[in-house]
Write the structure tokens for this entry.
Amino acid sequence: MANNFQLPDYKAEKQALINKEYDKEKVYYCKKCLSLAIISTERETESIDFCNDCGCTDIEEAENINVWEEMYEKRYGHKYVIKPNKTKNNGRY
Ligand SMILES: [Zn+2]
């Protein structure tokens, strides 16, 4: 027997909750290229952050993801598109 019923409402609700929490969080971005791919390296007493895209160590902090998104749009003229995690679902939906 096919188990094909879905719970889209529950899923959407859960995702909205995740997004809401995410909106409140501070984000760290590269000052040079505005990338969010910041890598932290722990050294003995200090941690060094650098951009995984351009290697720049000038990392800035944004109040939340929306602030950063605005900056990104101004710089590049389009919205940043978050790519789906390909390792989790093989790129398919
Ligand atoms: Zn960068």
Observations:
- Residues 23-86 form one domain.
- Helices lie at 8-24, 65-76, 86-89.
